Automatic annotation (TrEMBL):
Enzyme class: transferase
Record-linked Pfam families: HMGL-like, IPMS_D2, LeuA_dimer
Official protein name in the record: 2-isopropylmalate synthase
Catalytic activity entry: 3-methyl-2-oxobutanoate + acetyl-CoA + H2O = (2S)-2-isopropylmalate + CoA + H(+)
Sequence segments annotated as region (Regulatory domain): 438-547
UniProtKB keywords: Amino-acid biosynthesis, Branched-chain amino acid biosynthesis, Cytoplasm, Leucine biosynthesis, Magnesium, Metal-binding, Transferase
E.C. numbers: 2.3.3.13
Length: 547
């Protein structure tokens, strides 16, 4: 590996940096650049119809600023912008944003695309980084700064002309020193100051200065230093909104954006699920959900991923990774028995009105439309807890510990036989069959329970014979009756019962469930039964155990 070929990005010295002491307390202003940056990174760029579909979804999710394209660069982008304006598809509280290079004919064309718009951000950029200046543009610092000033002037002058034609139009100006993260920070300040001197923003009518990590080239802490340095050295900072636009080349776009917010930024540009050039843009879903999981209102509605993810996947033709933070298919799933056991215990204790405290689940999966089928997947590694959890959560069966242990190998064998994960329904069916819960026999329709002093007595018809016995309570009386008839010594080791709702596949009338663990002549026997009432369930469970 030829590491000596590379050198670190230079970032400013900032020994008195303040950002490490800050905390995130509110959501930033979000800007979706899915329709622009996301779109330009696609092998097959979106059609106007696909763009419209994604646009509606972004509006529905609550984005208030949406970068819709680069209308001077392609006819599709131009047409899409026109369609939004002409068909009145932009809600009152939503602002569209368009990108343009600092070149006059492109700026002119951009305002043509915006004709009649109520409010738009005109986002102009030129590149400022060392490598771009020296190797791509072959221009000096002064020449690059002059390009920015000239671009700012065209943006301002054409805006005035557009407003004369259409007085309803309001324009907000945005400037990006493209590849800010690879620009000397003091020089980036100098260029942005020059742009502000052209636009003359005020705290009431601020401009936007967008700081891109066009290529992520340093660690998030050093990017935060760049942002804090920029903000502290920018004259008239109150007249600019500071926007951040990170890419994910080093896999830290979200972290860099979070630390940039600590460093004082106000606004974040990114895309849903991180689609964008190369490794992608900053993923807004991840950052918003990070805030959400700490109790901060993300100011976006991400509660229905099934809907918005389907749209994103359709228009980008990119499938979401199964382990994508917060929304991947298996990110709330536990396969291992110890994780399942911990989750089950926590969920049983979790009250609806208290803060979420569940091991292995940073948020309640239900908040993003996931049910517990996804949480607990029973496979051959799951052990007793997974099966017990599923039977309780989905079918209302509260298995005693000894029964969980007894049933675990059955579930495991089924998982191995099926070569992977067992569906919850298959697991339940296996449980019913293994413990003969669907069988109608034995029939105990005819029994009488009575009292004889302290003792209870029982008499029941069983397989064409009469069983009679007495004991402390019905259970003991039944065991006594069995012993009288068969000579087998029966001891009840454990007994549990609970009420239930209608039991699936057993019958509407099965409202009571009983579990009994017996010792019959030194051998352990298990009996389970569902019946209309608890006494019938108990008697049936014992007789099933004895059989
Ligand atoms: Zn970008």
């Amino acid at each position: 590996m030829k590491f000596a070929k590379y050198q670190p990005t230079v970032t400013p010295d900032l020994p008195d940096r303040q950002w490490p002491n800050q905390r995130l307390v509110k959501a930033p202003l979000w800007v979706s650049v899915d329709l622009r940056d996301g779109n330009q990174a696609l092998a097959n760029p979106m059609t106007v119809e696909q763009k419209l579909k994604l646009w509606h979804e972004l509006v529905k999710m609550g984005f208030k600023t949406i970068e819709v394209g680069f209308p001077s660069a392609s006819q599709v982008e131009f047409d899409f912008t026109r369609r939004l304006i002409e068909e009145n598809l932009i809600p009152e509280d939503v602002t569209i944003q368009v990108l343009v290079q600092a070149r006059e004919h492109l700026i002119k064309r951009t305002y043509e695309a915006l004709q009649g718009v109520k409010q738009a951000v005109v986002h102009v950029y030129n590149t400022t980084s060392i490598v771009q200046r020296e190797r791509v543009f072959e221009k000096s610092k002064a020449e690059i700064k002059a390009m920015a000033e000239q671009g700012a002037l065209w943006v301002k002058n054409y805006a005035q002309a557009a407003q004369q034609q259409s007085p309803v139009s309001q324009f907000i100006f945005q400037y990006s020193p493209e590849s800010f993260s690879q620009t000397e920070t003091a020089y980036a300040v100098e260029v942005c100051e020059a742009v502000m001197d052209v636009w003359l923003p005020t705290p009431e009518n601020p401009c936007i200065l967008n700081l891109p990590a066009t290529v992520e080239s340093t660690s998030p802490n050093r990017f935060a230093d760049q942002v804090e340095y920029f903000i502290r050295h920018l004259p008239n900072r109150a007249s600019a909104l500071i926007s951040i636009h990170t890419h994910n080349d080093r896999g830290c776009a979200v972290a860099a954006a979070e630390l940039a917010l600590l460093a004082g930024a106000d606004r974040i540009e990114g895309t849903l699920l991180g689609n964008g050039e190369r490794t992608g843009n900053m993923d807004i879903v991840t950052l918003a959900m990070n805030l959400y999981s700490e109790g901060i209102d993300p100011e976006l509605n991400l509660s229905n991923p099934d809907e918005w993810m389907a749209v994103v996947e359709e228009v980008t033709q990119i499938k979401t990774h199964m382990r994508h933070p917060w929304v991947g298919e298996v990110v709330y799933t536990a396969y291992s028995g110890s994780h399942q056991d911990a989750i089950r215990k926590c969920l049983l204790k979790q009250q609806a009105d208290e803060p979420w405290q569940v091991a292995y689940l940073p948020i309640d999966p239900k908040d993003v439309g996931r049910d517990y089928e996804a949480v607990i997947r029973v496979n051959s590694q799951s052990g007793k807890a997974g099966a017990a959890f599923v039977l309780e959560q989905e079918y209302g069966l509260k298995l005693p510990k000894w029964l969980q242990i007894d049933f675990a190998p059955v579930a495991q064998a089924l998982a191995e036989k099926q070569g992977g994960v067992i569906s919850h329904k298959n697991l339940y069916q296996a449980f019913l069959i293994h413990y003969a819960l669907t069988e109608k026999k034995p029939n105990i329709s005819n029994y009488q329970i009575g009292k004889a002093g302290e003792m209870e007595t029982i008499r029941l018809d069983y397989e064409q014979q009469i069983l009679e016995g007495r004991g402390k309570g019905t259970l003991c009386a039944l065991c006594d009756a069995w012993q009288n008839s068969t000579g087998q010594v029966v001891d009840v080791l454990d007994y549990a019962e609970h009420a239930m709702h209608e039991a699936m596949d057993v019958g509407k009338n099965a409202r009571a469930m009983a579990y009994v663990l017996l010792d019959v002549d030194g051998q352990k026997k298990i009996g389970l039964a569902m019946a209309e009432d608890t006494v019938s369930a108990m008697l049936l469970a014992v007789l099933k155990g004895l059989n």
